[in-house]
Design a protein that fits this description.
With 430 residues, the protein is α/β, with parallel strands linked by helices. The chain has 14 helices and 21 strands. The chain folds into two domains: 322 residues, Rossmann fold, CATH 3.40.50.12780; 106 residues, ANL, C-terminal domain (GMP Synthetase, Chain A, domain 3), CATH 3.30.300.30. A nine-stranded mixed sheet has the order 4-3-5-6-7-8-9-14-13, sandwiched between helices. A four-stranded antiparallel sheet has the order 10-11-12-15. The chain has a four-stranded mixed sheet with strand order 20-19-18-21. The relative contact order is 0.11. Bound molecules: zinc ion (ZN). The site of zinc ion has 6 residues, from loops.
Length: 430
Amino acid sequence: MFWEKEIETISSSDLKKLQLIKLHHTIEKAKKSDYYKKILKKTKISTLKDIESLPFTSKQDLRDHFPYGLLAEDLTESVRLHSSSGTTGNPTVVFHTKEDIELWADLVARCMYMTGVRKHDVFQNTMGYGLFTGGLGFHYGAEKLGMLTIPVGPGNSKRQIWFMQQFSTTAVHILPSYAIHLYSSFQELSLDPKKDTRLKTAFIGAEPHTNALRVQIENLYGIKAYNSYGLSEMCGPGVAFECPQQNGMHIWEDHFYVEIIDPKTGQILPDGEEGELVLTTLKRSAMPLIRYRTRDLTRIINEPCLCGRTHRRIERIKGRSDDMLIINGVNIFPMQIEQTVMQFPGVGNNYRIEILKENHMDRINVLIEVHEEIFNGTLSKLDQLKNQIIEALKSECGVTPKVKLVEPESLPINEGKAVRVFDMRRNEEE
Ligand SMILES: [Zn+2]
């Protein structure tokens, strides 16, 4: 069964009892790892609140104790590892036992079932397979649910469309930026995904995006797009997911103990306040993590959800604490810029943010693709749109950017995660 009524609608008091049992188990297990052995030596947990006395675990801790420092089981019990790309220094590596993989697949199946997809659906996975958890995580969840699963992987838009048409794909897992890009391939082939495919559901995630972008994807394809949240340190996708209400993501509290902290002070914030998401695994065997700082910024939506599930919801990820841009002393998230820009109907599919130093001041340039008819229309219309965008960005972000409206398809696209922020300040100062 993929609708686990007893667990998904558990009462708050029963959930707390369950979490306390699982937390004990997790701590005992974690003590078997070299890293947690010393840290947790004298740890006694009698209430859930006692977790607050334990130190946080950071991505740096995983790097510093690469590769086996946090492994809590004999290596022979592990059946797989996933690893994040290490741009500098060691990557973070996460191990999984057979049971971890099973529980992860169950969780992803629970998420997908929640949105309404069923065994008779055909699922096309356009995410990267391999060390990145997005591909395999969804793959096993979809197979568990019993769907015909097509592991196309990323890129090759014409092939994606061919598979969608030949096998009547109904559900797709896709990066939001790639969904927009793929739509232009439909147009090139004179196809309309609304009429020429049987798509009805998309799972979008793996890169922060705005609700405006989600709505755009839903309108272009005539589908419902559900937000998904996960991170490889916890398992991968499946940590939190949207229900049919599409208003925040239920974070599965039978698997994860959830805290929101002030990223600067580490202080725990009450529900509703925005801060950094901190997670403790409650069911993982190979590599339990305690109070792991995700660096993702969000808040808890505390009101009960109309779908009846009692697991609390988190709001869409606003960005990573390390994505925050400081422009002449003002804190800005790239998401705020996207949200503001995307609400203008003439705006196209892609944009780029550049930050430079000019006379010792930060200068922010936003390049935005606009629709063909706007770009080739009158100069005054183009100027008008530009000024409206500048005004909107000024009031949303508190800084005045330079805005340049450019031709459709003129900004570079990469097939992996979208890279849209180019901070050139450091290079120029050197
Ligand atoms: Zn719900």
